[in-house]
Amino acid sequence: MPGENLSRDEARERAALLSVDGYDVSLDVRSAVGESQDEPRTFRSVTTIRFRCNEPGASSFADLIAPSVTAVTLNGKDLDPGEVFDGTRIALEDLAAENELVVDARCAYSRTGEGLHRFVDPEDGEVYLYTQYEPADSRRVFANFEQPDLKAPFRFEVRAPEEWTVWSNGAGELADGVWRFAETKPISTYITCVVAGPYHYVTDSYSRTFPDGTTLDIPLGALCRKGLAPYFDADDVFLITKQGLDFFHDHFDYPYPFGKYDQAFVPEYNLGAMENPGLVTFREEYIFRGKVTQASYEARANVILHEMAHMWFGDLVTMVWWDDLWLKESFADFMGTFANVGATRFENAWTTFANRRKAWAYRADQLPSTHPITADIRDLQDAKLNFDGITYAKGASVLKQLVAYVGQDPFLEGARRYFKRNAYGNTRLGDLLSVLEETSGRDMSAWAGKWLQTAGVNSLTPQVLLDGDGRVAELAVVQEAAESHPELRPHRVAIGLYRLEDGELVRYARAEADVDGPRTVVADLAGADAPELVLVNDDDLTYCKIRFDETSLATLRSRLGSLTDPLARALCWSALWNLTRDALLPARDFVDLVLRFASRESDIGVLQMLQAWAESALVHYVAPQGREATGRLLAEGALRELRQAAPGSEHQLAWARFFASTAADGPDFGLLQELLAGTATIDGLDVDQELRWAFLEPLAAHGVADESVLAAELARDDTASGKRHQVRCLAARPSAAVKAQAWAQVVESQALSNALVEATIAGFAQPSQRELLAPYAEKYFEVIARIWEDRSIQIGMDVVRGLYPSLQDRPETLEATEAWLTAHADAPPALRRLVLEARDDLARTLRGQECDAQAAGVPAS
Description:
The structure is a single chain. The protein is α+β, with helices and mostly antiparallel strands. Helices cover 43% and strands 20% of the residues. The strands form seven sheets. It has an eight-stranded mixed β-sheet. A five-stranded mixed β-sheet has the order 15-16-17-19-18, with helices on one face. Strands 8-9-14-11 form a four-stranded antiparallel β-sheet, with no helix packed on it. A hairpin with a 5-residue loop joins strand 15 and strand 16. The two termini are 41 Å apart. The model has no long low-confidence stretch (mean pLDDT 96).
């Protein structure tokens, strides 16, 4: 990645000097098909940029990452490409007040999901292209000024194979063999987009009449590879899309501004989705090839709405620099759930948010790399790593708190004024705070200082004092913070009191309070009957870690399944998981709670999260001496629940997948083999193709399914999805030769695409193979600096995160990590951040194992 970084200071200097009037971009992608002698395979890219310079005679640069440049012309003067282009930048000297730059380049197709990605479908040999740019990969496709505050209108034209269709941000027409697209509104480079190939395309339309009598008509489209067309439920995608457009029009009072609205589900996508105006791209895994639970449909709806919210938060109004990434991602993450609850069939989406999204935030906010929501982003590598649980889930949680703090109506009115004042422009934190101060009448600077400009998560614990009659004499909330981030924040919280009535734990008293400082007395609950459970942050109004008093924790240990409210239950489960990760609750106690009470969980998303947490507890936090027995209990419990689940239910499917992931011995593997062969059945369980692969991975990892079995399964499912599954299963086999081959394919070669790198890494590290993987701990520290230097940042991140030897959970691995950090003090900050995060996770693992061992009365190792 040498030479590709752009610093914030450089971006500021360029934005102060230049303003851009428009781009004309011409791409010729006919080289995507057929044989090619080029290495790498390239396409022609011709860009014309019209821009102004407010200091004539000054120098600047344009961005371009390309194997070669054929010609560069500035203001009619031909420049020598060898002199002005260094592989990442084009030097621009002696600029005029008004300038025209023309760059004719050979750009490379991508196999890493960055830039213009080229995918060959193994099923039918068809080629599919799409672009992905965030935060700074449009320069891999055309010359530009790659920073979010140099917005401009774009006109694209694309020459493609004649049997293809091409899409871009604007509406397109084919004439004389060229696809020409309508000029866009002023947008940032990173949200321009091109999708091209023989995609399956479905259309619909949306119409809205506003109170002033005007009508907005939006053409809708949805596309995917031809091989996925039989599974493509475009009707449901369009349903959520229309519901979202209605919702945002109702609440934003600003009509959708970008013309058409296409949604492309594309292969080998690195992200969940990307908010390109007029042409949103999604990972194609959101098209479900087999039966999935409603949690998957809810997640897809949330992503659709998240990206739609970006049309206003991010595309219409964009942050100046990546420091204020939260201005788009936090709002989109909040709005995705807000709209899901308010507009779609997923009325309990806040429960999923509390249980799943916030878990991501809590983990990120306790890492050494935690940062304020408004972060200090020095360069593009910092920006790439800041698409994290802080920017997304914590930011969304804080906005949920803000709505409780200022009120929903003032919050939405602030958003409406923000859009109208800053349309097609760029903003900073203060621009949003000023309109919220207007609409709410509150001092937003103090709130922002506490919530947006400091890092770390607070813990809230109830203290209950009873009087002689057994009533609440005083109930207080104690707030604590970590030493590293000691900020105590103002929280608007609800405190719920619960007791057992007719065998159920129900809430009988509730009060809202402003918690501030180390201890806050909640006067409204004095005199209430003594509670069996006190739930701080009931209804999930704020962002905090919930703790319990001794009585409440004892109640949950014995009665968690009796808690009737789904959101309250989800909050309790989340709190118990945080206690486990913080080494305050033994991991085997958490697993025991899951085994006793998960079967009573009605919310399928919460159940699947509990299953994932239980497996994580087994792999990372159970003391080594207890792993085998605990794993056996989990497998037995999963099989028991699988057999007892309602036939054909989504709970049955969730337990089937969990049983496969926890299968521990011969009888378990035998049952999986029989289910695959059809010689055994479980009433109502349809072992479709996706479930077959889920059953095969543990069989491969334990040496029960060999290469021939996996080859036969690929022949049965000879698709791109099948290939990814097979690659993961092949890498999972318990053989030293297999591990050496997988390591070499990822570390020593660049032959694999991003999706197959991801699949190989996922298969490589199997919890049952700790001894087999031990030699790779030392190798990891030998190669990561080279990997970071040689590979794209996406692949670098995948390798550094995915191959860290976390399964070598011994103090020696921690020491080796610290030794690498000491020896590489000058390594790129983004690389050091990834290693520091891995080191912190391992230290947390060792503390959790110590807690579990002490509770069991045995040494930790």
